[in-house]
Design a protein that fits this description.
The chain is globular. The protein starts with a strand and ends with a helix. Helices cover about 50% and strands about 15% of the residues. Helix 1 packs parallel to helix 10. By secondary structure, it is of the alpha/beta class. It binds adenosine-5'-triphosphate. The site of adenosine-5'-triphosphate (ATP) has 15 residues, from helix 2 and helix 5. Adenosine-5'-triphosphate binds next to helix 2 and helix 5.
């Protein structure tokens, strides 16, 4: 199985049954070539999206510590034109953010028409870390699934293409990555005791994520569970999913731009005649 696209509310996922490694048939060199081609395609699609201003794109990246959210942004989003992309990292809410509803800070960063917004962590932290660390009472975090579904439906009805990715790594891979951070001088700044502490809650996070997938997967805002132990494969899967979601819009965007082009030409002709 290449990629798991969960778009049915209520469909249960058992994370331990979802692979974290690439399928045996996946070939690294072929993946690199496909990834480069997808990068070009995404750049072109983004140009149409930007000009047509009929849609926008929201990419939500979630995953355990070291799952590779930043790496995915660097590689996949790196192929886009920065003109139309904003990246937001959601950390512990500030006082002002806490004094609003949990979606307030997120809605502010939703993409404008023609643009991409990338979320490094997101409103899902409010049903993940908030649940696992008992930051809010259970009835409160439970009520949030419905709010999240409604919020994403609202975005979608306003033309936002919502794509949610869970970067799925194994416990062993995470251990290797945490140890590697200590070894590598350029990465040591990222070390935090909290990351090792969080590993004690591995099973709690697994349950919390499984509930997220069951309760917030919809046709309009599907979850993609991405095998992420191998970075090259993770990047390929995310790029593929983004391209697949955008491709069906290409003709409509192009038609809008052709229409605008015709209007502009007519205006220019009229202007020349008057001279
Ligand atoms: P990365 O996100 O790349 O792993 P990091 O952990 O260093 O990097 P920070 O910006 O320092 O990133 O903070 C992220 C932290 O904020 C995480 O521990 C996350 O659980 C926490 N966080 C994010 N959203 C919330 C929230 N709504 N409530 C409580 N904590 C949150």
């Amino acid at each position: 199985m290449d990629i798991i696209r969960n778009d049915k509310q209520g469909a249960k996922v058992k994370l331990e049954r979802i692979p974290t490694t690439p399928p045996k048939k996946a070939d690294k060199d072929a993946a690199k070539a496909e990834f480069d081609a997808l990068g070009e395609e995404l750049f072109d699609l983004q140009d149409l999206l930007w000009g047509a201003k009929m849609n926008s794109v929201l990419i939500v990246l979630q995953g355990r510590d070291t799952a590779g959210k930043d790496g995915t942004i660097k590689h996949v989003v790196g192929s886009l034109n920065p003109r139309g992309v904003s990246v937001t990292s959601f950390g512990v809410p500030s006082t002002e953010e806490r004094e609003h509803d949990f979606l307030w800070r997120v809605h502010l960063k939703a993409p404008r028409q023609g643009e991409f917004s990338i979320f490094n962590r997101s409103h899902y932290e409010d049903v993940l870390v908030a649940r696992v660390n008992h930051l809010v009472p259970e009835p409160l975090w439970r009520s949030r699934y419905q709010h999240i579904r409604d919020f994403e439906t609202l975005l979608s009805e306003h033309g936002t293409i919502v794509l949610k990715f869970f970067l799925h790594i194994s416990q062993e891979e995470q251990e290797q990555r945490l140890l590697a951070r200590e070894e590598e001088p350029r990465k040591a700044w990222k070390i935090a005791a909290g990351d090792w502490e969080d590993r004690k809650h591995w099973a709690d996070y697994t349950r919390a994520y499984e509930d997220v997938f069951a309760r917030t997967s919809t046709q309009r805002a599907p979850w993609h569970l991405v095998p992420s132990d191998a970075k090259w494969y993770r990047n390929l899967v995310v790029a593929r999913a983004v391209a697949e979601a955008l491709r069906p819009h290409r003709d409509a965007w192009q038609a809008r731009l052709d229409e605008v082009g015709k209007q502009k030409k007519a205006e220019l002709r009229a202007w020349r005649k008057k001279r």
